[in-house]
Amino acid sequence: MQIPVVAALLCANLALAAPGTAMRRQRHAEKIAERRVARTGNTLQPAEGDFNIASTNGSAHVEYSSNWAGAVLIGTGYKTVTGSIVVPTPKVPSGGSSSTEYSASAWVGIDGDTCETAILQTGVDFTIQGSSVSFDAWYEWYPDYAYDFSGIDISAGDTVTFTVTASSTAAGTAVIENETTGQKVTHSFSGESDKLCQTNAEWIVEDYSSGGSLVSFADFGTVQFTGASVNGGTGVSGATIIDIQQSSKVLTDCSTSGSSTVVCSYTG
């Protein structure tokens, strides 16, 4: 994991700042380190309660979930999934507290819906607490934890492309390219004991887990996956649309447009 290194570098520079500023920076670094150590995605978790809530965009929804919003293709032989987003600026949800940390994540992946044994995924977390906003680029072979990439900077408004490729059921790569800055990072997996099925392809906004429970979900505005493709060609036509439902309230409104675009908006 990269965050402990970041925390150490921040602490090493404390002497250059005023004491109050130094303490705030140290506390912030420690909080980020603690959150990232425990951060994990999850397979799709069905929502509790009524699944027949009408969609605000008028389209039929096959699934509601407590943690996933977006689109999922179900089939066979999914080896490469890609999609691009413009990184949003997260906001504190209406009625939320400025002292609470709110987060959401956008990612592409293989498996995790009908295949529950593993997920190969990569994406970006966006987090807000008060007026402080941060972004983390990560990769994950679930059920292992997510790990931060180093060597890439993410800011609101950047165009970022995610790609995951399964070279086998136990190996593959996760790639994030910041089209705005030209930075690109790659992580390779091999010999994974939790095997992929290669039967699900996803473009997801997630309320991910930290410390064993869902994080407080941020108002992410709108996330639009463009250039969504599978195996270099097949797009999102025929995908299952998923929205997040928590405590009988639908928090997102997702849809597809054409064959290569998935749009999710926070409705809170």
The name of the CATH superfamily reads Peptidase G1
- Give the H and E element order: HHEEEEEEEEEEEEEEEEEEEE
**How many domains, as an integer?**
1
CATH architecture: Sandwich
Q: What's the multimeric state?
A: single chain
Task: Please write the CATH class name.
Answer: Mainly Beta
Overall structural class, as computed from helix and strand content, comes to: mainly beta
Identify the overall geometry: globular
**Into which percent range does the helicity of residues fall?**
10-25%
Largest sheet: 10 strands, mixed
Distance between the termini: 32 Å
Percentage of residues in DSSP E strands: 35-45%
Radius of gyration: 18 Å
Taking pLDDT < 50 over at least 5 consecutive residues as the criterion, the unreliable ranges are 1-35, 50-60
SS element count, helices: 2
Helix-strand blueprint:
Layout lengths: L2 H10 L6 H19 L1 E2 L22 E3 L2 E7 L5 E7 L15 E9 L8 E11 L2 E11 L4 E2 L10 E10 L2 E8 L5 E6 L10 E7 L2 E2 L2 E2 L1 E2 L4 E9 L9 E7 L2 E2 L1 E6 L3 E6 L2
Which features does this protein show?
268 residues; mainly beta; Jelly Rolls; ten-stranded mixed β-sheet; 2 helices; 11% helix; disordered N terminus
Description of the molecule:
The chain is built from 2 helices and 20 strands. With 268 residues, it is mainly beta. The protein has one domain: Sandwich (Jelly Rolls). Strands 2, 3, 5, 6, 7, 8, 12, 15, 17 and 18 form a 10-stranded mixed sheet that branches. A hairpin with a 2-residue loop joins strand 17 (240-246) and strand 18 (249-250). Helix 1 (3-12) runs antiparallel to helix 2 (19-37). The longest helix has 19 residues, at 19-37. It starts with a helix and ends with a strand.
